[in-house]
Amino acid sequence: METLIFNNIVNVLIRLDNEAHEKNVSQYEYARRGFAITNLSNRVIKDFGMKYYLTVLKTIDKKLSRSLSPLDISLVKKLKQSGCQIEIIECLEYQK
Question: Which of 26, 34, 39, 48 matches a 20 to 30 Å C-alpha distance to 78?
Fold first, then answer.
């Protein structure tokens, strides 16, 4: 499954995750990265399906040695519905 599209999706999601976890990142920038991760994730699910997205997540988890974050609660619900076991460590509130 190592295609150019697959690798690009993985690399962008990893970059967004890393940017969200930089030192001294503001709450606003953290939330923006979370929305970007959610939007890209939803697009991948819509275009390629949940099974493909779960493969993307497994690859990211291996490369980061941790889970992708921050995730929006709507995405977490979709993952739980497809059988993923998710432990929520921290839940942040935001206003649009």
Answer: 26
